[in-house]
Write a structure and sequence with these properties.
The protein is an alpha/beta fold and 312 residues long. It contains 10 helices and 14 strands. The radius of gyration is 24 Å and the shape is elongated.
Amino acid sequence: MTDPILSIRGLTKVYGSGTEALKPINLDIRRGEIFALLGPNGAGKTTMISIICGIVKPTAGEVLIDGKDWQRNYREARKRIGLVPQELTMDVFEPLISTVSFSRELFGRRPDPKRIEEILRELSLWDKRKTILKELSGGMKRRVMIAKALAHDPDILFLDEPTAGVDVELRRDMWNMVRRLREDGTTIILTTHYIEEAEEMADRVGVINKGELILVEEKNELMKKLGRKVLHLQLTERLDAVPPALGEWNLKLSADGGMLTYEFDAKAERTGIPSLLTAMRDAGIGFKDLDTHQSSLEDIFVGLINHKRAAA
């Protein structure tokens, strides 16, 4: 395995009030991967990204970019990192092209009008290049934030809830661009509330809750390991309760008594379905339809968070 492009070691953040926003975080990000960081509001996602990007000072810990400490090599680190933050914060009276060009030079890159034009065209902003930022719609301002983050051609791009509250067209453009960036070798770390995006885009998934990184896993392995299937049985006649004869399958009965639900591991040697159907027949319980549902990344995420809360 190649050396990670980004290494996080013992990173913590405790505010003056005593609030522990980040418990010791240890994480390696691989060169050229898309890493999705998932977690509920207030879990510590933005705090972690803000520390790595030099916006917030950590209480303890270090961040290494290609093995170099990001505080001692601050200028180089900032040059190699791009950030699309959640909040739309821009100089509202600047023309669009001016603010994007300035972002490139701010990070020590030489002016490159051709590169700026490429970025603006890719984000459908070229026709608006002379427009004052104040006059742009919210969706267009979000595109400008992305353009500013890309202007200095960073090796590592942080996307903090980049598609929250934007239109479907921008989300599609955004993810097409992310795919192209990854093909060009850019490492991408994203946080998102749209878990289906992480399911589609990410190579690996991390789950953070209450400042603690509770899981880091290859997405496909996570889906195999924790993904389960659910069998729904639409009953011919409604039941008041699950009969004792079916107790070993841990069935759930719907509120209206018309459906039984059985959860099973699709990878297991024995799913238990044939014996369940036999037991239902013996008990005189008929069904008129059945279907199966594969758990999604969202199901897995919710299950992990609930399990952690129950254990706390």
